[in-house]
Design a protein that fits this description.
This protein is α+β, with helices and mostly antiparallel strands. The chain has 2 domains: 202 residues, Beta Polymerase, domain 2 (2-Layer Sandwich); 209 residues, Orthogonal Bundle (cca-adding enzyme, domain 2). Helices cover 49% and strands 12% of the residues. It starts with 11 loop residues before the first strand and ends with a helix.
């Protein structure tokens, strides 16, 4: 069952010998922020994913601090090292030792006044502050994210049986689930992401409303959903995130045109699962990943479906114009759900256009120029990905592989109009004489 605010919990203070969170696992920047706030006379605790991950034996991505100091007071402690950000939810970012420590003020229930705005059950402004940690705990989302580390005696403070859920591998919402999802629908995506990332199970009462509440995501700005998509697919657990999204009917509100293709197109599903697997592997190997490549793959099936003959044109010229027109239409429609920045869509379009160029009939110097194009590698890798499921494309990938790896003689055999080394040298000499 979810933890209800109406149930009075006596906080459990877990002494240092009974838990595994050591200061040696906390960044020096986070420790410095905790000590400086306490020295200035404020309460300060470590909370959230950093505490959770250390207790699980993982390496935290970052550490968050919560305090009874107001944002302006936090800024007065750290001066030029601090920057206040956000309007819906004001935060202090403290810059220390090339790290950014996020500091938030204890939150309180909106009934207590302050700068809080709720529209149709959704929180649109959340600057309702409190001086008490027991108010803040009920504004947290999941029990495993509501464990507080006290730097004064190195203990953990647990109001909601979060440590027990952490040990049992349970994602449990704090409060009444449907109400909490209505307040902020992104919590549904966070439940899925944590389940995928940690290998946890979403507790039944927490999971039940998600199946039929995906429509709430339509009230979230598409730009914010793009940031959530990056967290879902670029944190090393893309495959499991995709499966969880599908399980809870949350993939459709994010990518409706892709979702419409998955029911009757096994190749589309296989293509997407493969790129997600490759993404997880690259992240595990500390290799760079490109959002544009993964998103180009996710939207490839609906792009093909929107083309008049549902296949990629094999001739250029007006066919390229048709492809560009279809791309623009798809991206415009998709932006109403998840807004993809122009810097990313530009590269996505280049990757798609390269599918036409790399499978065209023209050969010669133009092929060599394509090799020098900054988007060639991404376009070629996308063709390789497609060729793993479409046998007819293998002849093209083989040809381009030979062109990339071959010496001048091999290139001459592949390109009928490519001059031999001797002829090329003679032309250069003639130009010099002129």
């Amino acid at each position: 069952m979810p933890v209800q605010e109406s149930i009075i919990f006596t906080p459990v203070r877990i002494p240092r010998p009974e838990h595994t969170l050591s200061r040696s696992k906390i960044s020096q920047a986070a420790l410095s922020v905790l000590y400086q706030l306490q020295k200035a006379g404020y309460q300060a605790f470590l909370v959230g994913g950093g505490v959770r991950d250390v207790l699980l034996g993982r390496s935290p991505k970052d550490f968050d601090v919560v305090t009874n100091a107001l944002p302006e007071q936090v800024k007065s402690v750290f001066l030029r090292q601090c920057r206040l950000i956000g309007r819906r939810f004001v935060l202090a970012h403290v810059h220390l030792n090339r790290s950014i420590i996020e500091v938030s003020t204890f939150r309180a229930h909106h009934a207590k006044g302050g700068d809080g705005v709720i529209e149709n059950g959704r929180i649109v402004r959340d600057n309702v502050y409190s001086n008490h940690i027991h108010d803040d705990v009920w504004r947290r989302d999941f029990t495993v994210n509501a464990l507080y580390y006290d730097i004064q005696d190195f203990s953990l403070i647990d109001y909601v049986n979060g440590l027990a859920d952490l040990q049992s591998g349970t994602i449990r919402l704090i409060g009444e689930p449907l109400l909490r999802y209505q307040e902020d629908p992104v919590r549904m995506l966070r439940a899925v992401r944590f389940a995928a990332k940690l290998g946890f199970t979403v507790e039944p009462a927490t999971a039940a409303p998600i199946f039929h509440s995906g429509g709430l995501l339509a009230h979230i700005p598409p730009a914010r959903l793009y940031e959530e998509v990056l967290k879902l697919f670029f944190s090393g657990h893309a495959v499991e995130s995709f499966r969880q999204l599908r399980k809870y009917n949350l993939f459709m509100p994010l990518f409706p045109y892709t979702d419409a293709c998955l029911g009757d197109d096994p190749m589309a599903m296989a293509l997407i699962e493969q790129v997600l697997t490759n993404t997880d592997q690259r992240i595990a190997e500390n290799k760079p990943v490109m959002p544009a490549f993964l998103l180009a793959t996710l939207l490839w099936p609906p792009l093909l479906r929107m083309l008049p003959d549902r296949s990629l044109p094999t001739k250029e010229g007006n066919q390229q114009e048709l492809l560009i027109e279809t791309v623009q239409h798809l991206l415009t429609q998709q932006s109403r759900h998840v807004f993809i920045p122009k810097r990313v869509t530009t590269l996505m379009q280049d990757i798609w256009l390269f599918q036409l160029r790399l499978t065209g009939r023209s050969r010669g110097k133009r092929s060599l120029r394509l090799l020098e194009h900054p988007c060639f590698r991404a376009g070629y890798d996308f063709l390789l990905l497609r060729a793993s499921f479409e046998e007819s494309l293998k002849k093209f990938t083989d040809w381009w592989e030979q062109l990339q790896q071959g010496d001048e003689n091999i290139r001459q055999s592949l390109l009928p109009n490519h001059p031999s080394p001797s002829k090329s040298l003679q032309r250069k000499k003639r130009k010099k004489k002129k």
